[in-house]
Amino acid sequence: MFTPYFEVCDSEGISTVRIQGSCCNTRCVSEQDLQVVSSIGETIGRIWKRWPGYREEGNMDHEYFGLDVPQGINLKVKVLLLAATFLLNHMFFEMS
């Protein structure tokens, strides 16, 4: 009910994949996974965020993001998912 849900559409407005997150997409959680789901409901990948933790000697505002999708997926869908990764970072995790 309160989970993030995004539809990734192609240039014609047709939904190609969906991105589904957990109910607690907050910056304070060190690990986040969002599922990339095909149009038939099959999980085909994930967008993830990792925070390395607090360190006295360094800036702790650094996080790692990744996109894991099958190698055979359409290139246009990969590009759209990469753009969605940046959008999700800005919407849920960016503070500055």
Please summarize what this structure is.
This protein has one helix at about 75-95, and strands spanning about 5-10, 15-20, 30-40, 45-50, 65-70.
Explain what you see.
Its cofactor is Ca(2+). This is Phospholipid scramblase. Keywords: Calcium, Lipoprotein, Palmitate. It holds the Pfam family Scramblase. May mediate accelerated ATP-independent bidirectional transbilayer migration of phospholipids upon binding calcium ions that results in a loss of phospholipid asymmetry in the plasma membrane. The model has no long low-confidence stretch (mean pLDDT 82). It contains one helix and five strands. The chain is α+β, with helices and mostly antiparallel strands. The protein has a five-stranded antiparallel sheet with strand order 1-2-3-4-5, with helices on one face. Strand 1 and strand 2 form a beta hairpin. The chain is globular, with a radius of gyration of 14 Å. 10% of the residues are buried. Helix content is 20%, strand content 33%. The protein has one domain.
